[in-house]
Specification:
mainly alpha, 9 helices
Amino acid sequence: MTALILGLLIFLGAHSVRIVAEDWRSARIASLGLNPWKGIYSLISLVGFVLIVWGYGGTRVDPIVIWNPPIWTRHLAALLTVPAIILVVAAYIPGNHIKAAIGHPMLLGVKIWALAHLISNGRLGDILLFGAFLVWAILDFRTSRRRDRATGVRYPAGTPARDAIAVMVGLLVWGLLAGFLHEWLIGVRPFG
């Protein structure tokens, strides 16, 4: 449990610098340069991620069950992850209406993903992992939208073709995750 908590603090802490210390971040980038900053940020994030994976794996070996969710919550989670994955994909496909309308679709996707997993999992490790990501995504989404309004950021209007690409790639990624990769990587079959 300690490794999971430490990993979450490191990973989400690094990803929260713009939320809590935008000026400090800007000063570090100015003094170090953008690429060294990205390198340090990536290294810290990687250490946090490894600790999260290792710590979460440990919580599954010796779980502390808080509640036992009904079976139907697994199906609800699988359904909710469809738009979550599409939103995350839309963040990386330029020129789509989803990004133009939401501004930060990856953060909205993370919120939905975390909520879906909170609904369908009742172990303490799950609550810590997905709860931390949900809180972080809510705070980061709010801060990012506020920053966009303050600086007048507007996302370019999308095209139907780019929307279709985002949705199709999102559905493909979701199908791969739900059908194969989730069991292989996590050890849980979403539809099992």
